[in-house]
Design goal:
mainly beta, OB fold (Dihydrolipoamide Acetyltransferase, E2P), five-stranded mixed beta barrel, 2 helices, 8% helix, elongated
Length: 165
């Protein structure tokens, strides 16, 4: 065991003009000064691969912070003042209206199978809120995504596209 305390070791290292080696800074690194970016060939651990192979080192001048623009955001639609994403919209057929202010709507989605490239129909039963309770079984309706209204209800009937005969 050493009788020296860490403060005295740091003082001795500073007196010898050496920095104590600790942590991730233990490996030596060589950085090229900013005024040495003239295209001169440099060798050492801090140079680029192109410069070490004998090619000229070219770098574009960095833009000042005031000229850097953030990525462009798409402009919101007229009805979405301040919103970044639009609500999902689905069309389907009402298969049940037995509950109060709720309709069960079947939405058929046609997708291409990833492996067999055949068109496959996928059916989902969505629970939709119907405030006026006026949809009937067989109606074609347009649904709009909304906040959770109950355990299964996340859609709202926006309009009736076609009435059942």
């Amino acid at each position: 065991m050493s009788d020296k305390n860490p403060a005295s070791e740091a003082e001795v290292a500073a007196a010898e003009n050496e920095e104590p080696v600790t942590g991730p800074a233990a490996s030596p690194t060589h950085e090229v000064p900013a005024d040495n970016v003239t295209g001169e060939e440099a060798t050492g651990p801090g140079t680029t691969a192109a410069a070490s192979r004998g090619g000229q080192q070219t770098s574009a001048p960095a833009k000042p912070a005031a000229q850097i623009k953030p990525p462009a955001q798409p402009a919101p639609a007229a009805g979405d003042a301040g919103r970044t994403s639009r609500r999902k919209v689905r069309e389907g057929t009402v298969v049940s209206n037995g509950m109060e202010k709720t309709a069960v709507v079947v939405v058929i989605e046609r997708v291409r199978h990833p492996r067999y490239a055949k068109t496959v129909q996928r059916t989902k039963r969505l629970y939709a809120h119907d405030e006026t309770n006026d949809v009937r079984v067989g109606d074609r309706v347009r649904l709009v995504e909304t906040r959770p209204l109950s355990k299964l209800k996340r859609w709202r009937v926006e309009s009736v596209l076609e009435r059942a005969r």
